[in-house]
């Protein structure tokens, strides 16, 4: 299930990147308003920009949903594996224990005692 959603997630991200690169900046609208040649296209003067921006918004919402679903499925899968395997703290470690040497007590003063 996670792999299917992950494939859809990657395809959505690549499609969003392509659509954003196809869109024109806001400065290109002035040329189209003065008859820059795009008014005779299939979508009209503003139709292509509206179509691309709406499609990008729908794909972005789908990307958001797949991100949340991947996070939810990943957390539930991780919770199941932690319950079945036991906690990391509860598992015994293979690292051998070693003794910590006791600290050497320093003299109370740096001045040597007089005799």
Shape: elongated
Rounded Rg: 32 Å
Largest sheet: none
Q: Which percent band covers the strand fraction?
A: under 5%
Order of helices and strands: HHH
Q: Ends: how far apart?
A: 84 Å
Indicate the mean pLDDT.
Answer: 76
Number-wise, the strands total 0
Low-confidence stretches: none
Structural class: mainly alpha
Defining key terms:
single chain; 115 residues; mainly alpha; 3 helices; 57% helix
Describe this structure in words.
The protein is mainly α and 115 residues long. It has a domain at 10-22 and 47-78. Helix content is 57%, strand content 0%. It has three helices and no strands. It has helices at residues 2-22, 29-33, 47-85. Helix 1 (2-22) runs antiparallel to helix 3. The chain is elongated. The mean pLDDT is 76.
Can you describe this structure in just a few lines?
This protein is an all-alpha fold and 115 residues long. Helices cover 57% and strands 0% of the residues. Helix 1 packs antiparallel against helix 3.
Give a topology summary.
Elements: H1 2-22, H2 29-33, H3 47-85
